[in-house]
Each structure stands twice: as C-alpha cells, then as structure tokens.
Specification:
AhpD-like, mainly alpha, globular
C-alpha cells in the first residue's frame, strides 16, 4: 500500500488533482474506488498528479493544453471532455483549445480533431450553463 502520510507524494498529487479537476470530480472518483482499483488510483495520483502535474516547469495552462492534444489525438473521448472541463481551473481558454485541436488535425489526423472539436463544442457549451 502506498505511503499516504501528510506531505507524501500521494497528498501532493491529490492536492494538484483537486486544483485541476475540482473537488466534486475527485470526490466522485474517490467514492467509487474499490480494492480492485485502489492501487491504480494511487499510481495515477502519485505519478500523473504529483510527479507530472505538480512540477512547475510548465504552467497548469500549458499542461492542460498538452493533455487535451494528446487525449484528442489518441481518441480518449471521456478523458478529453473531463480535461476540457478542467480548463475552468487551469486557465486554458476556448481559443487555446481551438488552437490545440488545429495542431491535432495536422499532427494527429483530421478525423481525431473532428471528433475532438465536436466534444469540445458540447463540453464548452455545457460549461456555460
């Protein structure tokens, strides 16, 4: 079992995860956690959120844009919508998202970008409600 003492990588990652995705999302994910996925949740909290997202070399806005591009290019649509919603916390704008998806069209393929643009439009419209 991972070290979850205050100040640990887990706690640092959880703080960053909450700052990016929001308390409601993290509380839902934590509430749905079982013994089956507990180690996986610890892994992503410590590696993605503590090691990668907590580093200050790139801003959260820049990391958000990179993440959106990768998720769009790889076709991870559910995660893409989640990270588009997270832009409310990271500072990436709708214009940033549009430009990122233009890059996806060129470097990841038009079909991937086309689907991602549809998801982004729906997600951004839902964020205005």
């Amino acid at each position: 079992m991972a070290d979850r003492a205050p100040g640990s990588r887990y706690e640092s990652g959880m703080a960053t995860r909450r700052s990016v995705l929001g308390d409601a999302h993290v509380d839902r994910a934590s509430g749905n956690m079982t013994e089956f996925d507990r180690d996986f949740q610890t892994l992503i909290t410590e590696s993605a959120w503590s090691t990668v997202w907590s580093d200050d070399t790139l801003t959260k806005r820049e990391r958000s844009m990179i993440t959106i591009a990768l998720l769009a290019a790889l076709g991870h649509h559910e995660e893409l919508a989640m990270h588009i919603r997270a832009t409310a916390n990271t500072g990436a704008s709708a214009e940033d998202i549009r430009e990122v998806l233009m890059h996806v069209a060129i470097y990841g393929g038009v079909p991937a970008a086309n689907t991602a643009i549809k998801i982004a439009k729906e997600t951004l419209a839902g964020m205005k409600d």
